[in-house]
């Protein structure tokens, strides 16, 4: 067997050395996009498994179904890149990774039912390591503690328990902040660190430039996505109106559906939002999305087809009439039409949207990020205005277009300014 070089200094940046040198009970990494935190944590998982014969890993996300294409795929890719894939057995059913030499396990679980996790047993060694990926999704500190407290027992000499927590810090209200980062309240066994894209030596220049551009164009989003700082919850347009939750298509099968489409290209993403609406209970379910920069017209048409938009009404950004015509006449996208526009149509639409609650599926990332960073503007004196800032709202705009059918459309026509104003007023929103 060839010699495999697993020199950590050649695999991860210095910002992640504590993963391999510290024995703290908790290592909490908040960071920006592209910071390399998930990759580095994945390296930690594999190396610990090979170095410590007693160590088995529990990989946790809020939703079990998100593991296969994220943590599991990441660990598999890292194993190949390190040249150690032959040392591990990768299985999908059950979803787990086995270290062939000893039988140690890397197990994947969701927090749908924390009590089920606490009953896990391993046949070789001890369940003494955990990696909480996308920890911002975690709903409950109590549930987190329930799982962590189940990892107990006497380990071999010099053995230690350790949990890695990695996440993007979208809101400073999240319990992760007080539990691991605030000096007065944090767990004293925790080592808390912040990383950015500057801690990743493997990013291409175009990606780095897009992040730098975000600092100028979308500072609220860049606060988290570029600088790795805590997002600010104050002034959120949809404050307390949204939640992330896993739900099946069967739950929304009988609800009316529509697709919104907001066009972007180099600097801004093209956002396609897929929603179902429960008018009786005033709940909007956003069940799918594509959210990508640099999309050409044909790629947009393909994405609409792949995400099963065909057959649904598609309401698109009216500022791009040419793209709408191309999608319809050149690429055969049916049922697509421009969104209505007029005096105060944006603020009226946002006000009407605030009369609903939103349930966002875990696969819908772009909209969730925007919900967490879409804020009202301020005047020169720092006073809040009633108009949202324009610049971090591509998915929100897309969703507003999709909801237009259920807000401001009457007898197949987009309402006039006065009719829209009356509709908003009738809801008691102004």
Structural summary, described in words:
The structure is a single chain. This protein has 430 residues and is α/β, with parallel strands linked by helices. It folds into two domains: 8-206, Rossmann fold (3-Layer(aba) Sandwich); 242-426, Nucleotidyltransferase, domain 5. Helices cover 32% and strands 22% of the residues. The chain has helices spanning 18-21, 37-51, 68-82, 114-117, 141-149, 175-181, 205-217, 219-225, 249-252, 297-306, 321-330, 345-353, 365-371, 394-407, 417-426; strands at residues 26-31, 55-61, 88-91, 96-99, 105-110, 126-132, 162-167, 190-195, 242-244, 257-262, 270-278, 283-292, 314-316, 336-338, 357-360, 376-378, 384-388, 409-410, 413-414. The chain has an eight-stranded mixed sheet with strand order 3-4-5-2-6-7-1-8, with helices on one face. Strands 9-15-12-11-10-13-14 form a seven-stranded mixed sheet, sandwiched between helices. Strands 16-17 form a two-stranded antiparallel sheet. Strand 10 and strand 11 (270-278) form a beta hairpin. Helix 2 packs across helix 3 (68-82) and helix 12 (345-353) runs parallel beside helix 15. The model has no long low-confidence stretch (mean pLDDT 93). Residues 262-404 form the Phage terminase large subunit C-terminal domain. Residues 25-229 form the Phage terminase large subunit N-terminal domain. It comes from Ligilactobacillus ubinensis. Pfam families: Terminase_3, Terminase_3C.
Features of the shown structure:
single chain; 430 residues; alpha/beta; Rossmann fold; Nucleotidyltransferase, domain 5; eight-stranded mixed beta sheet; seven-stranded mixed beta sheet
